[in-house]
Amino acid sequence: MTSRTIIEVPTSGYHDLQDLTPRITAAVRDAGIQTGIASLFVQGSTGALGLMEVERGLARDLPEMLNRWAPPSEEYAHEQTWHDGNGHSHLQATLLGQSVTIPVAEGAPDLGTWQQVFLLECDIRPRKRTVVVTVIGD
Predict the structure, then answer these.
(1) Could you tell me the pTM of the whole model?
(2) Nearest of 48, 50, 40, 44 to residue 4 by alpha carbon
(3) At what angle do helices 87-96 and 56-69 cross, to 10 degrees?
(4) Under-70 pLDDT residues of the chain
(5) DSSP 6-28
(6) Contacts 24+ apart (CB under 8 A), 20-23
(7) Which pLDDT tens digit goes with each residue over 44-68?
(8) How far apart are the first and last CA of the chain?
(9) Domain annotation for the chain: domains and CATH numbers
């Protein structure tokens, strides 16, 4: 059995981090699948998905780390092509990735106690992100 759910997420712009766990949990529950996997994918090359404890400290630490790895102040070849000032946004999102796979057990995402699903906006402006949740199993 397979189920597909679309979740629309408006963001406020650069490094807006949102906890999607309640919405993902609802999508998995509504799929009616007891055992399987949930594949999560954010459309777009400047949005990222991941798993971590979503709390104020880490919500500040993660963007700071990304800014050290791909600083906004650097020159990027992407910007020479598109002149949009978001070369670092593409690189930061690529470092985190656009997809996550989570096991499903007893009709719910099988996450650890301090583990949540997050969306991080890496683009320099507000966006409307589309997260595709595909649940596969029995």
Answers:
(1) 0.96
(2) 40
(3) 120
(4) none
(5) EEEEE--STT-EEE-HHHHHHHH
(6) 20/49, 20/116, 20/117, 20/118, 20/119, 20/131, 21/54, 21/109, 21/111, 21/116, 21/117
(7) 999 999 999 999 999 999 999 999 9
(8) 6
(9) 2-72+81-137 (2.60.120.460)
